[in-house]
From TrEMBL:
Residues 35-180 form the Thioredoxin domain. One of its GO terms (cellular component) is cell envelope. This is Thiol-disulfide isomerase or thioredoxin. It holds the Pfam family Redoxin. It is found in: Cell envelope. The keyword Isomerase applies. It comes from the Bacteria. InterPro entries: Redoxin, Thioredoxin-like_sf, Thioredoxin_domain, Thioredoxin_ResA/DsbE_sf. GO terms for molecular function: isomerase activity; oxidoreductase activity.
């Protein structure tokens, strides 16, 4: 029995490692599709998890915004949150992090917002996390897995390369490179 338990435990650890390295599949299962305007983040007007209005103006005044697309169902997303919270508090003035709760069905999804608030509180995250409106939901349909992190300049242009998986060191490299 002890040997069976050990094998099961090792299997779970291996499975978790794969999840952490690659991220969770997007809930809707859609394959990535290139769009004609994939280099621009869509204009939007939605709310954050606290119900405050947020628009694409959130990008203005920052040279770079790290956009972390995550889901309340995704263990790697949740596990990287404390590190993202610490990093957000240490970022230079011309950079910021925002999150998009990808499994929210829209700005009025109270249940997913409540789950996100619990996760963010437990992780000591203070940066803005939005619930997607229709335009952001359409944009998210092109995301293969979560977490996926993209980088946006002050004009809403997507810059650099997206990072799929919980790879905070890679996020930091891109920000450092861009701010040089």
């Amino acid at each position: 029995m002890h040997k069976l338990f050990r094998i099961l435990l090792l299997s779970m650890v291996a499975f978790s490692s794969i999840f952490l390295a690659t991220g969770c599949s997007a809930e809707n299962g859609k394959a990535a599709q290139e769009t004609a305007n994939s280099n621009k983040f869509p204009a939007f007007q939605t709310v954050d998890v606290a119900g405050n209005t947020v628009t694409q103006d959130i990008f203005k005044g920052k040279k770079i915004t790290v956009v972390n697309i995550w889901g309340t169902f995704c263990p790697p997303c949740i596990e990287e949150m404390p590190e993202l919270g610490r990093w957000a508090r240490e970022m230079p003035q011309d950079a910021q992090i925002i999150g998009i709760v990808c499994d929210a069905s829209g700005p009025s999804d109270k249940e997913t917002a409540a789950a996100a608030v619990r996760i963010l509180k437990d992780a000591n995250v203070g940066f803005v996390n939005i619930l997607p409106d229709d335009k952001v939901l359409e944009f998210l349909s092109n995301i293969e897995a979560v977490p996926t992190t993209i980088f946006v300049d002050s004009n809403g242009n997507i810059i650099g390369e997206k990072v799929i998986g919980a790879e905070v060191a890679k996020y930091k490299e891109q920000v450092k490179r861009y701010l040089k």
